[in-house]
Amino acid sequence: MFPGNARPSLASGPGRTVEGMDNRDEVRDFLTSRRDRLTPSRAGVPLYGGRRRVKGLRREEVAMLAGMSTDYYTRLERGNLSGVSGSVLDALARALQLDEAERAHLFDLAATASAPGQTGHSAPGGPGAGRPRRSSSPPCVREGVLRVLDSISAPAYVRNNRMDVLAANRLGRALFADVYAQGATGFNLARYLFLDPRSRDFYTQWDVVARDSVAALRVEAGRTPYDRGLSDLVGELSTRSEEFRTWWAAHNVKFHTTATKTLRHPAVGELELTGEALTLPADHGLTIITYTVEPHSASEQALNFLASWSAQASPANPRESETIEETK
Question: What's the pTM?
Fold first, then answer.
């Protein structure tokens, strides 16, 4: 089990999504937020006198851009995506100028609408069309993956899509030394960001990292809307963090595959690290995150010092990687 307080579930009943909302509400809020952010000038919609009552596009303008009637688009925005074809979703994605992550999220919401309360399949023509909906990640990390972690000379760890850190190599544990110093065998990155005040010193651009984590969890909520563990996590963070609650309500989504972060480590000072996400096809839902530094930089010197420091701090002949069982 991970450290932290009890996590109340917000999901209840068939058709309920991760945050305890009906799928229709989720669709409505997502489409409305995307329409509100798209200005007429950005969309190429001509303006004809008079004061506009909406900050973004009107429903009829989105319908025109998508090549559908206003009544039909209104039906979609009210949350009724059940049975909607992939071509209609594509047209809607183009009209709203959705990026790759947003488009995938739209198709995931449509898949849930078409098979409420079930895992189902992606909508026709959408990402993952024709494949079964993704299931939960494995409960623990395989021995072969642990050996891969041990072979990586940079900080590395394995996480699932809920941001539970399930295993880390020696440098990975040294990087998050404050967390592991308390005897933790694993932790949740989102919970660390929003509920542990030390994270705001650890990440020099805390707000960027925190917002990205919320957007990544939103992606996962669309993929696996009935994941009890994710529901519990979102429920806890929404209850205990106003920032998380506000950013979650924005319905922003983002694929998180690479990013450069500056960390302020208590033992070695600032480190500018570039994280790379390496998916594990044989272990659905698990990802190796590893960090690199610019050669011959101050960050490389700091990372070398961290390696030396971690070797001295670790017990003799330890198992490099430690793994924990995933929370349900």
Answer: 0.83
